[in-house]
Design goal:
- This protein is an alpha/beta fold.
- It is built from 4 helices and 6 strands, in the order βαβαβαβαββ.
- A 6-stranded parallel sheet has the order 3-2-1-4-5-6, with helices on both faces.
């Protein structure tokens, strides 16, 4: 049996955008993220976080720093009654030739294969066009671009919906 999933980018969707975030003290959840995730769970969506983390390859922080921050973040979700099914991250630089760095679909395809995800019934919520491009390449057409992260060119966006913050996703995702 397949599952339906909400894929979330991390920086700019879950937390406020901070260049090369790796310290808990710099992590600020975007208002409404827990409420939105509880809503997704109530609609029987699983939640997976996918994130490019080039700060590892660039030497701004190491993989252990990233893993510690992720463990803390997952604890905060858990404390709010939210089960995150999994997290996937790309530690490579933008110049690498890996298959996991968005806009390539590697992380999404790995998740699909690991959890038997129905991509046509799933959603991607990101703050950059590369998030949506990766989703489309992986077979996800339900996409939401949020304005809470990077500056975006809405006139050239391939997003199905554009909203101010993840908290508004409840107005878009109904089933």
């Amino acid at each position: 049996m397949t599952i339906k999933t909400i894929f979330l980018d991390r920086d700019g969707v879950i937390n406020k955008e901070v260049g090369y975030l790796y310290r808990v003290t710099d992590f600020i959840f975007i208002q409404g993220v827990f409420d939105a995730c509880l809503y997704f769970q109530n609609l029987n969506y699983k939640i997976i976080i996918i994130s490019n983390q080039s700060g590892i390859a660039r030497g701004f922080f190491n993989e252990n720093d990233y893993l510690k921050l992720t463990e803390w973040m997952l604890g905060q979700f858990n404390n709010n009654g939210i089960k995150i099914l999994d997290t996937f991250y790309c530690p490579h630089s933008p110049k690498s030739h890996c298959e996991c760095r968005k806009p390539k679909p590697g992380m999404l395809i790995e998740a699909k294969n690991k959890y038997n995800i129905s991509m046509k019934d799933s959603w991607m919520i990101g703050d950059k066009e590369t998030d949506l491009e990766a989703a489309n390449l992986a077979g996800i057409t339900n996409t939401i671009l949020v304005r809470s992260g990077h500056l975006i060119d809405e006139s050239n966006s391939n997003s199905m919906f554009t909203i101010d913050s993840i908290r508004q996703s409840k107005e878009v995702i109904k089933t």
